Amino acid sequence: QVTSFQGVAVRSLCTSSPHEHPEHGRLVYKGSLAKAVLGVRFFSYSTSIFNLFMMPYIMLKTGIGFESLFIQAAFYGLMGFFTFVTPVTLHVLTKGYVIRLYYKDEMDTYTAITYNAILAEKATVFHQKDVKIPDITKMFTTFYAKTKSMLVNPTLFPNPQDYNHLMGYDKSFYFNLEKEKEADERK
């Protein structure tokens, strides 16, 4: 919690337990861009729907016509791009953005809340052992939960231990040279 006191930002640490959800568990993460992601996607969808309904009307009423078939194809292609490709691209880029992340301690499971294609909240339940960290850093992926890519901001976890447990950084590191040699020999 951040409050302002005479122009100086003061951060206070609260000792009370975080928000509990009866079904999902304890809230460990809340994405700061949830409203922005929802707003941008809603705006994109609404302009695409508006474009679908208004374009035929505008074409008929204004008498806009192109004599060249190539120019007509280019015009309709451009309109189709902005009508269909932009919302699909936004969905693909933001579908893994985690709005909220809950943790159920007794079962060691996480529930990630994301937006689906129709802008409804979707819950994905996974175990910590299902978390895979990509070998190469990807732009819109922090980790994979089973096969679904998820994006979180590590600095938004109120308790850093929650992020460490999610990513498996709290486990002891064990390196087995025998298995590595066997794997190299098989290659």
UniProtKB/TrEMBL annotation:
Keywords: Membrane, Transmembrane, Transmembrane helix. Signal peptide: none annotated. One of its GO terms (cellular component) is mitochondrial membrane. The keyword Hydrolase does not apply. The chain crosses the membrane at residues 36-58, 70-93. GO terms for biological process: mitochondrial proton-transporting ATP synthase complex assembly. The keyword Membrane applies. It comes from the Eukaryota. Belongs to the TMEM70 family. This is TMM70 protein.
